[in-house]
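Sat 14:20. Reprocessing the chain from the morning session after the first attempt stalled halfway. Input below, unchanged.
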Amino acid sequence: MRSLLMAERPRYLLSLGDRVSMDAYAGGPGRGAASLLYQNRDTDFPDWAGRDLKTHLPGSRLIPLAMDGGTSATVRYAQLPRFAEMSVKAAVVTITMGGSDLFQIFGNESAVEAAHQALKENGAAILVQLRKLAERDAPILLGTLCQPSDGTDDAAHQGLWGWSGALPWIARFNTTLRGLAEVHDARLVDLHTGFEEYGPASGKIPAQPPDPRPVNQGGYGHGVIEPNAQGASAIRAAWWQALLAADFLHEKR
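Finished this time. Tokens:
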């Protein structure tokens, strides 16, 4: 049986990390950021028709391993081993991590430094291992933590953010993620700035219970940090732009 030519082999989009990448908060299957990057929902986002990996990489497949509550340790010790067992190479990798590391010890100043150190150590190990599990020169897209304060630098106004140290720690975590990307040849994707003015205080989200598919199209959040359908599309757009910048994709002008 002849070997498959490279063009005939499946290409894989690997999604790692936490709830930011998942479908659940964006309205269900196919609606999360990684799912939209893989295959656009043309009825929801007609401007993105044909701008997805399924179109640009025929035969490609999505491997969605990101999970609710996934920390950097989860990625390192659970998600990566699971992918390694599949014995395939990733053509594109997206990672959203660090948020759960921080929020699971929310308000605990004595524990946050340990969580920060864990992100450094796990992040380095993850990116080194990914180079072995990915195709040569595969883009590894590492996202920053989103900005939950609507650009006000006051997290407490949301009610759930009564920890004065939250925003400085988010900034430190993002500095660490930026450093990891630089050292390990990953592409940093600035989700922090992209979400800066699209949270509850912006006036762009209706004053009603969180809706994954809000009538008001301006807000990006389902909850405090989870992206709704609009937020998921914004994350997808940031990843798409990173792939264009890496010359991994080319769009007709």
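The first helix runs from residue 33 to 38.
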